[in-house]
UniProtKB/TrEMBL annotation:
Reaction(s) this enzyme catalyzes, per UniProt: [protein]-L-isoaspartate + S-adenosyl-L-methionine = [protein]-L-isoaspartate alpha-methyl ester + S-adenosyl-L-homocysteine
Cited HAMAP family: PIMT
Name recorded for this polypeptide: Protein-L-isoaspartate O-methyltransferase
GO molecular function, one term: protein-L-isoaspartate (D-aspartate) O-methyltransferase activity
Amino acid sequence: MAKERDQHSYTRRRQAMVTRHIAQRGITSSVVLNAMGKVPREAFLPPSLREFAYEDSALPINEQQTISQPYIVAYMVDALQLTGGGKLLEVGTGSGYAAAILGEIGDDVVTIERYETLADSAREVLGSLGYDNIEVVHGDGTLGWPAQAPYDGIVVAAGGPEVPESLKQQLAIGGRLVIPISASQTEQALIRVTRVSEHEFREEHLTEVRFVPLVGDAGWEDRHADKRAPVAREVTQRPSREASSMRTSELIAEAADPIDDIDEGNIDRLLERIGDSRVVLIGEASHGTSEFYRFRARITRALIEKKGFDFVAVEADWPDASRIDHYVRHLQTPPAEWTAFARFPTWMWRNEEVRGFVDWLREHNASIHDPEKRVAFYGLDLYSLFTSISAVLDYLDEVDPQAAATARERYGCLTPWQSDPATYGRAAAAGRYRECEDDVVATLVALINKRMEYAQQDGERFMDAVHNARLIANAERYYRSMYSGYSDSWNLRDQHMFDTLDSLLSHGGHGTKAVIWEHNSHIGDASATDMSARGQHNVGQLCREAYGDDAYLIGFGTHSGTVAAASNWDEPMEVKQVRPSLRDSWERLFHDAGMPACTLPLRHPASRELDKRMHESYLERAIGVIYRPETERASHYFKACLAEQFDEYVWIDQTRAVTPLASKTLDGVPDAYPFGL
Ligand code: SAM
C-alpha cells in the first residue's frame, strides 16, 4: 500500500517536472517529453536521494560522478532531433538515467561508461526496469563502439577538449553528435556535429554548459580527473538581463568569481578584496569537509606569502595547537605524556588536509632565520582543562618550585573531576561541591604578577603558561555555566576565543596580522543570524566590534556530497551523505546558480540589486561534528542574512569527507611530529 502511494507520488512529481522544468523551458519535441515522462528517475538514485529525484538538479552518484540534471538531458536529446527509432550511442552512462531516456526513443542503444562499478549498477537497474534494447559497455567511450556503428545519434555526457574523431566516423550520414567541448575541464560549449555526407561535417554551437570531464584516449588525461577538483554539474547559462528581473541565483552566477582549482586556483581577486585587513576569519560549514579545509589552506598560504600574515589561530585547544606550533616553527618540544588532538572529535584536526597545511607551514618557516618571525599556529578553544593544568604545573616546576606547590594545591580542587569536567560543572552549579573559581583565578593572578621575573627567563614559555592558566580559569566558569543556560556557556567560550586572539594580536605588536580558522557559527557575525535572538554572540561579531573593517569574515557553503561526522557525541566518525540543500536556503540559491565552486563578494557586491538580495533572510545549514540527516531541518538549519553575516562567501557545490589520519601514515616522520602517537 505504502509502495503504491510512493509510486503515485513519484509519477505525479515526474509529470510536474516535465511540465515545469522541461516543457515550459522550451523543449517541445513530443518524443523527448514522452520519454522524460516515462523514465522513473528515482530508480537510478541511492535511496537517500530519491526524494530529490524530480528536482531539476544533478545529484551525486558513486565514483564522484553525477546523474545529469533532467533539463540538460532533455536539452541534449532534443538537440539530436530524433523522431523515434534508430540506433543511438551514449558516452558516459553514469547512473543509466539518460540511457533509459534514449531507450524510450531509439530501437537500439549502446551506452559506455569508464567506471566498471557504475556500468554494472546501471546495467542492473536498466535490466530490472525491462530495458532490453540497451547494451551497457564498460570502456573508454571516446573511442565509440564500432561494433554497432553507424549511429543515428550520439550523445556525450562529459566534457572533452575536442570532438573525438572516432565518434564522428561512427555517425550515420544525417546523424548528429551532441558533445560538450572546451579548453577547461569544467566549462564547456555544447556542440552539435551533423554528418552531412561521407566526408562533410557541420558544427554548431548550442549553449554553454558545465560537465564532469571526459577522460580517455581522445578526452582529458586521467591525471586531470584524479586531481581533487570539485565535481562539476551541468547547467545552461543564460544571457544577462536587467538585474531586477533576474533570479537571485542568476545574479550570483553573474557576480561570483569561479574557483577553478581548490588547491591551486587563482585567488588574486579575493586577495584584492581582503586588502589591508589584518584579521581574516575563515569559516567552514562543517568540521568534516575536505574542500573547506583545503580552500581555507589555499587562502591562508596566500595571505602568509603575499601579505605577510603572522599567525594562524584555530578552533582547537591551546596545548594541542602548541604541539603544531613547535613543529612548524622548528622549536624544541617540551616532553609531555598526553597525546595531542586525542579528544573527540579527533578527525577535526587529525586529518590529511590539516597535515598538508602543517607540513607546508613548517617548510615555509624553514627559510626564516629568526624563530620569532616564523609564522605561528595557536589554539583558541578551552576544552583542555587538565592538559592545561599539567602544562602550567610543568612550567612552574621548572621556573619556581614553590609557586608550583601552591598552584598544585589550588588546582587540586578540580582534580577529582579529571575524567569528566562537565560533572564538576553540574555539582558546583547545584551547590553539591565547592566552586574552584577562586583557586584557579588566584593561580592566574599569581603567575601574571611574576611576569617580570618569569618572562626574563623565557618570554615564549611564560606566555604559553599564561594562556594555559587563563584557559583554566575560563574553562572552570564554562563548565559551571553549562548548567545555568546554553547561551551563557556559548558566550563564555566565544569570549574566551576572542580574548585569546586579542591578546595574541596585542602581544605581537602593532600591525600583527592573523588568520582565524573556525566553524561558520563562530566566524559569521552572530547578530545577523538566529543566534542573536538567543542572546548569543561569537568571535566574528566581537572581531567586527573591536577591529571594524580590519576584520574580514569569510563563510563557506555546500549543496551535497559526503561529510565526516558522528551521529552522537563521543561516537565514532562516519562518512555520511550530505542531503541536497533545502528550498528556501542560501545553499539552494547558490546551487541553482550552477557554479561548481566560486567566491561571492558581499562586502563589495557587484550590484545594488545583488546587495539587496543578499540582505534577505534565508535558511543556512551548519554541520558541526554531529550530523543528523534524519532531523536535518530542525537540527542543522537556522535563519541568516548572508550579507551581514560575512564579507565573502565561498561556495563549493559538491564536497567530500575529510580523510582522517591513520597512525600508520606517521611512519618515518620526525618524533616531534604534532600528530604523533
Ligand atoms: N548520463 C549520466 C546519467 O544520466 O546519470 C550522467 C553522466 S555523468 C555527468 C558523466 C559520466 O561520464 C560519468 O559517469 C563518467 O565516469 C563518464 N565518463 C567520463 N569519461 C568517460 C569515457 N571516456 N568513457 C566513458 N565514460 C566516461
